[in-house]
Design goal:
Elements lengths: L1 H26 L5 H22 L10 H25 L2 H8 L2 H11 L7 H20 L8 H28 L2 H23 L10 H26 L4 H6 L3 H14 L5 H29 L6
Helix pairs in contact: 1-4, 1-9, 1-11, 2-3, 2-8, 2-9, 3-7, 3-8, 4-7, 4-11, 5-7, 6-12, 8-9
Length: 303
């Protein structure tokens, strides 16, 4: 039951993340990537803090503070800068498709760090999915913004940050709790981004922001950050990093729908092909593990 709850939480987090991509795309022209990240995670921290204080979970131990701070800087500092910058150049659907390389990157990172072995089946799945994503992004350039490839690369770099965070944060979440860990890590990233934005004048430029943009900021802060990343950490505490990362395939679907409704962005065939390739590749890569686990649980010998 705990495993199922983890997967469902990860899927809901990814669906929210897709709508957040569209909301970010809506306001990214009003500010710079650092200021947008500062608003997103500053608001997100304020939304999470009361919940964390009411929880009975243990806060990260002092011996873990440096690690929590490092992961906070990586995921709630560097990640949003890359994420927001990517959406200056590309569409919500393409950005979400590039982010859907997360499960594959998580498999590679997990194998490189000795957390999960990289089998031939996983390797083939990774190559198929990556080829599908590459094909979809290249063939969609004709209908995409002029420098969409820059956004695609920036989003993949953001996904790599998320992959390392997912693998490295799991033992820390197990020693404390998803709410307290996420709150502390988000605070580190938010403080850093607020400081950088203040030094570069980004916060002062918010004076001209309209009500619709502030509503979008509030959404990506409270829903797209506080709720989504709490659910992500909750999921990491109950299942493996790779299985959590697989849920990000929900992201392009919700992003494409939200982008079409809010921004009028077209949903091209290349997005559908790319998503299908990602799903197929992940299915191949993770199928062996599921079969092995099912055989281990079965009271009867395999035929």
């Amino acid at each position: 039951m705990g495993e199922l709850l983890g997967v469902l939480a990860a899927m809901l987090s990814s669906a929210i993340g897709g709508t957040s991509i569209a909301a970010t795309r809506f306001v990214v022209g009003q500010t710079d990537p650092m200021t947008l990240g500062a608003l997103r995670f500053g608001i997100g921290f304020l939304g999470l803090l009361p919940l964390a204080l009411l929880q009975t979970e243990a806060w990260p131990a002092r011996r873990d503070w440096l690690l929590v701070a490092g992961l906070g800087a990586l995921f709630f500092g560097l990640f949003p800068i890359l994420f927001n910058a990517s959406l200056i150049f590309t569409t919500a659907a393409r950005g979400a498709l590039a982010l859907s390389t997360l499960p594959l990157l998580t498999m590679v990172v997990g194998a490189a760090l000795g957390v999960e072995p990289m089998t031939w089946r996983k390797t083939i799945g990774v190559l198929i999915a990556m080829a599908g994503v590459a094909l979809a992004l290249v063939t969609g350039l004709s209908s995409a913004p002029a420098e969409a490839w820059r956004g695609d690369l920036l989003m993949m770099a953001a996904a790599l940050c998320m992959a390392f965070y997912s693998v490295w944060s799991k033992p820390l979440i197990a020693r404390s709790g998803p709410t307290t860990f996420t709150t502390m890590a988000m605070a580190v990233g938010a403080v850093g981004l607020i400081g950088l934005s203040a030094m570069t004048g980004g916060l002062h430029r918010l004076a001209d922001t309209g009500p619709a943009q502030w509503l979008a900021f509030a959404y990506v802060g409270l829903i797209g950050s506080a709720l989504a990343f709490f659910l992500w950490s909750f999921a990491l505490g109950r299942t493996t990093p790779t299985r959590v990362a697989v849920s990000v395939t929900v992201n392009p679907v919700s992003a494409a729908i939200a982008g079409a409704l809010l921004l009028g962005e077209p949903i091209g065939w290349h997005v559908i092909v790319g998503l299908a390739a990602v799903l197929f590749g992940i299915g191949i890569a993770s199928g062996a593990k599921r079969k092995k686990a099912d055989a281990a649980r079965s009271p009867l010998p395999a035929a």
